[in-house]
Amino acid sequence: MGLQLAQTQLLFGVAEDGTGGYRVMYDALGGQLRLLGASGKPIASATVAPGVGEWRTLRVVRQSDGGLEVGLDTGRGYPDTPQLQVVDLGVSALGRVGFGLVSSGYDLYGDRASAAPLD
């Protein structure tokens, strides 16, 4: 059997021309959660429970001081401490938000991506 992928990508801070921004990548098969910067360079990563065949939800919080938090709900709610926490000032604007799905050998579905200010 060839390479199997089940990967979700959430993009944010992307300019109107499609450049820059951040990318959160969740590999459901390998159990990896990664945050990449505008250049594609990894900023942070964590090992999480694989989630093939299970519904997962990503939450990204971007603070005004450059703090970025990424949490993965594995069916029991978001953890008290997000799996990824970093400070990065590489992209200052929220920009556009979107998601992508990469799958080979597995069905992979995306529901939605949205952005909202925190209260």
**Spatial ordering of strands, largest sheet:** 4-3-2-1-8
Mind telling me the C-alpha Rg? 14 Å
Low-confidence stretches: none
Shape: globular
Give the ordered list of helices and strands: EEEEEEEE
Counting helices, strands and paired strands, the structural category is mainly beta
Can you describe this structure?
By secondary structure, the chain is mainly beta. The protein has no helices and eight strands. The strands form two sheets. Strands 4-3-2-1-8 form a five-stranded antiparallel β-sheet, with no helix packed on it. The chain is globular, with a radius of gyration of 14 Å.
Task: Give the gist of this structure.
This protein has strands at about 5-15, 20-25, 30-35, 40-45, 55-60, 65-75, 85, 95-105. By secondary structure, the protein is mainly β.
Question: What secondary-structure arrangement, pairings included, does this model have?
Answer:
Elements: E1 5-14, E2 22-27, E3 32-36, E4 42-47, E5 57-62, E6 67-73, E7 84-87, E8 96-104
Antiparallel strand pairs: 1-2, 1-8, 2-3, 3-4, 5-6, 6-7
